[in-house]
Amino acid sequence: LRDPFETSNHAKRVGAYCVELYDRWGRKHGASESEIQNTKEILRTAAMLHDVGKVAISDTILKKPGELTEAETKSMRMHTIYGARLFKQTRSTWDRLAQEVVLNHHERWDGKGYPGRVRDIFSPDIKFGPGKVGSEIPISARIVSLADVYDALVSERAYKEAWDVDLVHDYINNQKGKQFDPELVDLFLAIRDVIAQIHTKYSY
Q1: Four-point Cα dihedral 118, 123, 127, 129, nearest 10
Q2: What values do phi and psi take at 157, rounded to 5?
Q3: Are 94 and 45 in contact (CB under 8 A)?
Q4: Concatenated DSSP letters for 64-132?
Q5: Which of 30, 80, 162, 187 is 20 to 30 Å from the Cα of 58, by its Cα?
Q6: What is the pLDDT of residues 49-82, one digit of tens each?
Q7: What one-character-per-residue DSSP string does 123-183 give?
Q8: Distances (CA, A) of 121 to 17, 116, 204
Q9: What is the mean pLDDT of residues 124-145?
Q10: pTM of the full predicted structure?
Q11: Which long-range contacts (C-beta less than 8 Å, at least 24 apart) are formed by 148-157?
């Protein structure tokens, strides 16, 4: 409701990228056809909700042109916590996967992401911990992280112009083993034509 056009399209694109990427990852890892299909549908929705916590962040921060202050950055990063708090019923596969994605999609393969190891996301005094590392980050969040960054870079935002797609591919490849899971980078770049078609489909 606060940003119905671009937020909606961004969410649709990220969800669609994640479905394609998980399909390749699941088949490579021997997942059954039924597991792949069931997970894809849940992951699509969870991925579309990855930034739901931003409803709690001021538009003066979300739409600020240029760099954020240290305090603004901390406030922005809290969207992972605010969003994860919405999915309390972790007995449900849907809620569990959505919470994984929302909480962890800004973690990095090299451990330099956020919010890191937070003891209790419902605490009134949140302290970000050391970042989760490698396969400690759920595969759902590792997939969404890559899809989210790709779409953010190839799309125009209030604070930046769109990057050329070839530069984005180079950036993602350079972040292999740093920001992103190396295996997922290879799978993602192998389907770049499919990804480009999705971006075009949900850009108007």
Answers
A1: -10
A2: -130, 170
A3: yes
A4: --SPPPHHHHHHHHTHHHHHHTT---TTSHHHHHHHHHHHHTT--TTS--SS-S-S-TT-SS----SPP
A5: 162
A6: 999 999 999 989 988 888 899 999 999 999 999 9
A7: -SS----SPP-GGGS-HHHHHHHHHHHHHHHHS-BTTBPPPPHHHHHHHHHHTBTTTB-HH
A8: 28, 11, 37
A9: 96
A10: 0.93
A11: 148/14, 148/50, 148/51, 148/105, 149/179, 149/180, 150/17, 150/188, 150/195, 151/10, 151/13, 151/14, 151/17, 151/199, 152/10, 154/199, 155/6, 155/10, 155/199, 155/203, 157/6
Following CA atoms 38, 41, 45, 48 in sequence, which dihedral angle do they give, to the nearest 10 degrees? Answer: 130
Q: Say which amino acid occupies 19.
A: V
Helix (H, G, I), strand (E, B) or coil at 5: coil
- Looking at the chain, the whole-number percentage of residues with pLDDT higher than 90 is 83
pLDDT digits (tens, 9 = 90+) for 91-116: 888 999 999 999 999 999 999 999 99
pLDDT at position 92 is 87
Q: What's the DSSP call for residue 3?
A: S
Residue with tokens 């969410």: 11
Please answer whether residues 142 and 134 qualify as being in contact, where contact means their C-beta atoms are separated by less than 8 angstroms.
Answer: no
Query: Looking at 40, 54, 127, 176, which residue is catalytic?
Result: 54
C-beta separation of 151 from 10 below 8 A:
yes
